[in-house]
Amino acid sequence: MATKKIIFSPDAPAPIGPYNQAVMVNETLYVSGQIAFELAASGDIQAETRQVMENIGAILKVAELGFGNVVKATIFVKDLNNFGAINEVYGSFFTADPPARETVEVARLPKDVNVEISVIAVQ
């Protein structure tokens, strides 16, 4: 029987809708898309991406996991011209064996942010 546990970090933004920051099912952690709405208007896509990754790191930590446990990531970006800058910051969080990933350009993201990232991690 699957066990389900809600994961919450006070060091990442609280959900803005009917969802949780993350849910652990058995040994798999599903982290909801993370954003950095406080930095979205700054125009600094690298700072925004760094904050998103730090939010993910805070959630992983509560689940007693780290970036080395991430097996899948999804990046949603408002302007694919920012791919290189996002990729540079994103890549700095994975020192070896980065996860599988897709990057998708979208018309709009919550709170008008420029990037949103979700991950799946395993113990």
TrEMBL record:
An MF annotation (GO) of this entry: deaminase activity
GO cellular component: cytosol
Superkingdom in the source lineage: Bacteria
Coiled-coil spans in chain: none
InterPro entries, sorted: RidA, RutC-like_sf, YjgF/YER057c/UK114
NCBIfam families (UniProt xref): Rid family detoxifying hydrolase
Family in the record: Belongs to the RutC family.
Protein's recorded name: RidA family protein
